[in-house]
Amino acid sequence: MKKVILQVPAIIVFLTVSAYSQITIQVGAGLGATAPAGNYTGTTIDFYKGTQYGLGTGFNLHAKARVGLLGFNLFGMIDYSTLSSGEGEGEPGKGTVKNSHNIFSLKAGPEFNISIPLSPIGFYLDGFVSVNTISGKVSFQGLTKVPSGEYDIESATRFGVGAGGGVLLDILPVVTLDFGLHYNAYNLFGKQYTANVTSHERLDAYTSLNDDKDPFFQEGDDDHIIGESRSMNAWQFTLTAMIGL
Length: 245
Known about the structure:
Elements: H1 2-21, E1 23-37, H2 44-49, E2 58-69, E3 72-84, E4 88-91, E5 94-115, E6 121-141, E7 149-172, E8 175-189, H3 201-207, E9 233-244
């Protein structure tokens, strides 16, 4: 009995050391492209009408950490993306509009790895929740329904989810290239309409995110133009250099 009791601490230490030896930690940073989808796309005319955001493909910078145990990983990511419409028409043949968004995201979730024996290439699938702070600028020139000028878009936070996967390529014993492709739903939760931000009712529609319907919307009303909630979604392509610790 005493022999068994003495062996218990040794077994616990052995299991602890074995588990610890299987833990992997990687940190890294990278860049990529962010391509809007859904209501985040469209033209500057769509944005001026209040139906879509009219944004085009932009870039992202990010930092990533991955903690793995026996093939199951958890990852976290800090991400900054910027998207812009470029300058375009507000109405056919009349005036110009330019719209831009900056998105600062915190993401975390599980990651499932698929490895190939004796190969430097591996694959993964993942999902995550995200907290997204979105701001930006909008400018108008020569339009009759809003005053000309450049205006800040009020910063706001939305909660989202995403999913995707990627390819891992070991290029050095402690360096891995991570090629990722993910779909982000930035504003799945927390949509709202913000009014009375400026002294001009229609300008209110553009100087906040206003991803929910304007409660005073009516067909043909030139001041309250957002008649439906709008999704802020995007595909994200990333290249990350990960270093094992």
